[in-house]
Every structure is written in C-alpha cells, then in structure tokens.
Amino acid sequence: MALKSPWATIAAWFVASRLVIFAIGVVGVGSFLNQRSGVATESLAALNPEATWQKWDAEWYERIALHGYAYELESAKGQAAAAFFPLYPLTVRTVMTVLPGVSFFWAATILSNLFTSAALLLIVTSLVSFDDLRGRVLATIMTSAGSFYLSIPYSEGLFLLLVVGTMVATRARRYELAGVLAGLSAATRVHGLALVAVPAVACWLDRSLTARARFARSAATVALFAIPFLIYLAHLADVQGSWSAFVSRQELWDNPSPYPFQALTGFFHYPRRMTAWLHGAFWFLYVGLLIRYWRQMPLGEAVFCAGVFVISTQQEAFHGIYRYVVPLVPLTLALTQDRPEIQRRLIAINLIFGVLMILAFVTYNRITV
C-alpha cells in the first residue's frame, strides 16, 4: 500500500510532541531550582527558549562553533573541547557565517529541527513499506525519552539524519555513498564509528556482486568512511597537539581510561549512584530488545546497534543511554512490526522517563547526564 501524505503524519507527531516538550521545559525551569544557581528562573524568563534549552553540551557546541578547538588551550576547558565532535558545530558556524545576525542558539535549533524533519521524511518514504506502520514508527521515535534532544542545539538531529541516510543508501546498494554518510556520522558522534557496519557488511554479503567486486566495493566503502574521521583527527593533532585528543581528554571529564563495558563495573564502584542505575536500566532494556529482534534486521544494521551499545559502556558509569538509543532506527523498525502492546509498554516507559529527564535537563540536575 502506498504511503499517503507523509508530511501530514510527520507534522502531526512532530508539532504535538515538540509542544508538549516545550511546555514541560517551561514548567520545569520556572518551578524548580536551578542546580547551578540555587534559585528558580523567573516565570517570564522561563518562556524564553534559550533560557530553557541552552544548557549542558549546547554550551560546548556554541564554544566550538564560535572559537574552534584552538581556543584557550592553556586552560582545562579549552582542552576539554576535544571530547566533542566537529560536524554539528561547524555546520552551525557555516549558517552563522552566511546569516551573521542569527545567534548560535537559533541557528542550531533551526538546523536540529530541519535535520530531524528530513530524517523522519526519509524514514516514512524510504524505510517503511506500509501505511499502518508509519504512525507507529513516528510514535516510537517522537515519544522516546531522549527525543527532546532532536530539537535543541545538540547533534542528535544531524546524527539521526546520517543514520537514516546511510540505511537508505545501503538498501539502494549505493555502498560508497553510504560509507561517506557513515563517515560524516563518525565526525558527529562517537557512536557513528559503529555505523560503517551497515554498508560494509551489506556490501560484503551482496550476492549480486562478484567476489572481486564485493571486496573492492567493501574496501572503498570503509576507506571513504575513514576520510572524515581522519580529517578530524588530523585537525586535533594540529591544534591540540595529539591525534588521540578526543580520547585522552576524557580524563578532563572524569573518565581517564575509557574501555568497553567499563560502565558495568560502575555498579560496584558507585553502588549508590542513582543515575548509573537509571541509565543502566535503559541500556539493559534496549539490549534485551536487540536480542529479541536482531534476526529481523539486516546483519549490518544489527551490528551497528550492538556497536552503539558497546560504545555507550566506555564511561565509568552509565550516562545518557536514553539519548543514545533514539537514532537506533533499525531497532525501532523491528519493534513496530511486533505486537502493538509491546510498543505501548515501551512508549509508556519512555514517556515517564522522558518527563523526568526534561525536568532534570532544564534545571541542570546531573541525573539527566
């Protein structure tokens, strides 16, 4: 059955979910104490989106967009910027250069919403085959606990678009293009390093190609994937003095020795840290979903999801898992083909957790990270 009016369905879910998120943010910032200042924001100021949402990583993206990675390197703060990947803030900087009167917040917010809208359109037109699944897919994404990051000055919207673009290009057997898009995602978030599995595995298993062609195109895909990330590393080496600055500077974020599955040890090292248990529970929930559905996905997409989960454990305790699962589109597509009651239960969990995280985010409460 052909899809009908995809924009209407997207607009309905997008606008409704953003209005609810905005309202929760206003209530939170205007009703609860700001954990940094110790006072609540005045009611009128709470209506200012910038006062509500320009927080946490958004402050670092603004710093990079305005000053780059070479700014104030003599300070710990200047060096700590290396932990953030460049594609999103540089894209915002480009818009600000073209439109110099636009502030970082509004340029970044508009871009995030455009990236998210484009990703949703690609999902419902290129990845969903039936009308009855379209609403279910959008509902799962737009009600997820971390979906508010898709509309604020964060890299999630761009990363989601690159994930979807990589999947679409791979399914069209345009493996080299998918490799480029995956490489751009690796210059957006560290989880993008896992995305190369989508085109590389699909190309290697493509029986319509000869063995020689599979090898050549897989190698080309991986090489094209590596280019954006290597450019980023070379830039860090030039301005921050080290190719591995994005790893070594994790020490400035209380994570001196990142390694896979380190977060699991956090349950023993920090048994009273509620954030670790909350975010860890989300990790186990979604790992369980991946175990349930991985056979319903192309192998490369399942490997990508598994890679994101592994990368998400390299910190000293679980952080931000509810954010990291939002772009796992292959898992979302598999979920929406299961029984509706399973999706409804997951949405209920995400709505409860999402409200808590929004309130924590806008008040600088560390539980959100």
Tell me the layout of helices and strands.
Layout lengths: L5 H26 L11 H4 L2 H5 L3 H11 L8 H5 L6 H12 L5 H24 L3 H12 L13 H16 L3 H12 L10 H8 L6 H30 L4 H4 L13 H8 L4 H20 L5 H13 L9 H4 L4 H7 L4 H23 L7
Helix pairs in contact: 1-7, 1-8, 1-19, 4-6, 6-7, 7-9, 9-10, 9-11, 10-11, 10-12, 11-12, 11-16
Q: What would you say about this model in short?
A:
The chain has 369 residues and is an all-alpha fold. The chain is built from 19 helices and no strands.
| Principal-axes shape call | globular
Beta-strand fraction estimate: under 5%
How many distinct beta strands? Answer: 0
Quaternary state of this entry equals: single chain
What is the end-to-end distance? 42 Å
Q: Which structural class matches the secondary elements?
A: mainly alpha
The averaged pLDDT comes out at 94
SSE order: HHHHHHHHHHHHHHHHHHH
Low-confidence stretches: none
* Total domain count: 1
| Radius of gyration from the alpha-carbon trace, in angstroms | 20 Å
* Major sheet details: none
Number of continuous helical runs = 19
Helical residues, percent: 55-70%
